[in-house]
Design a protein that fits this description.
It comes from Actinorhabdospora filicis. Helix content is 32%, strand content 37%. The protein contains four helices and six strands, in the order ααββαββββα.
């Protein structure tokens, strides 16, 4: 509705930059993809607020638990709410060193809100949810109206 090809490309480039910063283990570059006051919810439900918390949390991750990991990420949907606000839904996973593709069980679904301010796109919000396919199937069998688009 509001998107131009250049805007779609800019939001895609921002997403790619985020993934590249993860792969480089660069917490500052990763957090720079977010607004100063961004809200960031991890897949375990931890709510980070602002770039400093995003930097600190990711620096700790890359020093220990997720050292030398990289991301698989794919934009599934991009929708512009206004010329300066876009919502993207992505599929992603953290890949271990030497891993080229995610296992189905690793996949998570992310929702990111990108905002343009002063001509620059950044993410203002991020939500990461572990994909629970078994629960999707169970729920769909109980009532088809809540079935996911593709099982």
């Amino acid at each position: 509705m509001y998107a131009t090809p250049a805007d779609s490309a800019a939001v895609t480039a921002l997403f790619d930059r985020l993934n590249a910063a993860w792969g480089a283990g660069d917490a500052e570059a990763y957090a720079d993809a977010f607004t100063e006051d961004a809200d960031y919810v991890t897949f375990v439900g931890t709510h980070l607020h602002g770039r400093k918390q995003i930097v600190d949390a990711h620096a700790a991750l890359w020093e220990k638990f997720q050292k030398n990991t990289h991301l698989y990420g794919k934009i599934r949907r991009m929708r512009f709410l206004t010329p300066d606000v876009a919502v993207i839904v992505t599929e992603g996973a953290v890949l271990k060193p030497g891993q080229d593709a995610p296992k189905r069980s690793q996949l998570k679904v992310q929702t990111l809100t990108a905002v343009r301010n002063g001509g620059q796109w950044r993410f203002a919000a991020f939500q990461n949810t572990k994909h629970r396919r078994l629960m999707e199937r169970f729920a769909a069998k109980q009532d088809a109206r809540i079935a996911p688009e593709a099982l």
